[in-house]
Amino acid sequence: MRAVYGLLLLLMLSACDKNEVGDVSLGVFTTKDIKLDAINDPVVTGVTCHVSSIEANLDLSDPSDSSIACRQTGPITAAMIAQIDKSKNGEVLFSKSKSIFFKSMKIRRIFDAENQTLMYLSYATKETSGSFKHSLSTVPLWGTKAYSAANSQQN
What we know:
By secondary structure, the chain is of the alpha+beta class. It has one domain (about 20-155). It contains three helices and eight strands; from the N terminus they run H-E-E-E-E-H-E-E-E-E-H.
């Protein structure tokens, strides 16, 4: 009986996601929902990413599919760009457990210096049906203070 209460408590806590901005039911005869999260870049604060993923409420593992769309929602400055990891691997900004079996969904920021663009990659850490599910969104620095500063440094 304690296991049932523990499982119910876990399900209720998993629904309390501070990033969640939407929840779409996939129908009466399924326990799967599409969850919509808003993730703000902690360093480049002028960028917000919206991620959709499926949660299977009574399963031990959620599907690995996700979709990401990132947009400029505020100022992006040269000082912000100076603070980010500019390696080819970039840095993980967000991680969400998708299974009790060590699968998670991660969002990573990678900077494309040549094209002055921030790339945001959403991906699953476990292979599903022969594929690592992933989705990409980009935020160009064109027209921002960060682009102007980088452009003047190159000239």
